[in-house]
Amino acid sequence: MTMRQLSAVVGVSCICLWAGLPSRAADATSFQDWQFTNADNPALPTVATNAAGVATATIVVGYVGAGWLADLSGFGTQTGLWDIGLQNTSDLTNDTRGRVLLNIPNPVPASGGSYTDFELRVVQFVDGFIYTGDLTFSCTGAVFSGRTVVESLPPPGGNWVEDQFQWHLVPSPAQVSLTITGAVRGTLLDRIRADTMTPVPPLVINSVVKNDEVLAITWAGGLPPYQVYFTSNLLSYGSWLPFGPPVSGTNAEIPLDPPVGFVRVLGSSQ
User: Fold this and answer.
1) CA distances, 33 to each of 45, 131, 149, 170 (Å)
2) Among 90, 99, 10, 105, residue whose Cα is nearest residue 55
3) Ranges of each domain in the chain
4) Of the options 3.40.50.300, 2.40.110.10, 3.90.870.10, 2.60.120.260, the CATH number for the domain spanning 28-198
5) Beta strands 260-266 and 13-20: pairing type?
């Protein structure tokens, strides 16, 4: 990795600080795929990659919804389905449709000020008559940015159809919260996939201050947790040693004990 050197000379001691060049670091991403292989509720993703934590899908079954089904005769070979119910036409004062509540921890920079792009893919049964596929969404702090029909409706009889939806969130939230509300005549869900992508700004040293025999440094950008490293010899490959445990904040204090030393700070995205 290409690095930039920032040097601070204090008395007879020399501490050199390193941080990444001011180019955009790797994006912070997450991926969740709910295949609903069992009736667990809240449901955990069947497959997931998320450094910020574990996402959940809480299913609220609506009017006459059958809930989780291992399979459903006459609806293809899909397994692991949720029949989340429909609107009770005899009780129009209350919304009785089923819902899925997604809560997704979002890996974001500690300094904030960024944005997150959120993509959702939903596989549901659509026949254009009973199962219309008309889902509605509520996503806190999000602006809807598009829909793509990944698999279009086949000839009469219906089939499992996948739609893709995108939202843009500014600033990046620590958690993406999305509510999926089923169609008026009912919704059969087979699979839900959700991705987040947050650009991570470069890690840049903001200040270097000597307090007695301690060098206080602050930085911005990157993705927590951060790790401070120390070495006394740049010519010895692989000699960088962790200085203290990883930190979630954007500051550290370095004792000025060695006569010469080099310090660098790396975020988890570097």
Assistant:
1) 5, 23, 18, 24
2) 105
3) 3-24+219-266, 28-198
4) 2.60.120.260
5) parallel
Contact 91, 70 (CB under 8 A): no
* Residue-level pLDDT, tens digit, the chain, 270 residues: 333 333 333 333 455 555 444 444 568 899 999 999 999 999 999 999 998 999 999 999 999 999 999 999 989 899 999 999 999 999 999 999 999 999 999 988 766 668 999 999 999 999 888 999 999 999 989 999 988 877 665 556 788 999 999 999 998 999 999 999 999 999 999 999 999 998 887 778 888 888 888 888 888 877 778 888 888 777 766 578 888 899 888 888 888 775 567 778 887 766
This prediction's pTM: 0.75
- DSSP E strands: which ranges in 85-187? 99-105, 116-126, 136-139, 142-149, 159-169, 175-181
Measuring CA to CA, which residue among 31, 99, 25, 26 is closest to residue 61? 99
Sorted by sequence, the CB contacts under 8 Å of residue 92 that are 6+ apart come out as none
At residue 269's C-alpha, the angle toward residues 113 and 174, to 5°, is 40
How far apart are alpha carbons 9 and 261 in whole angstroms? 11
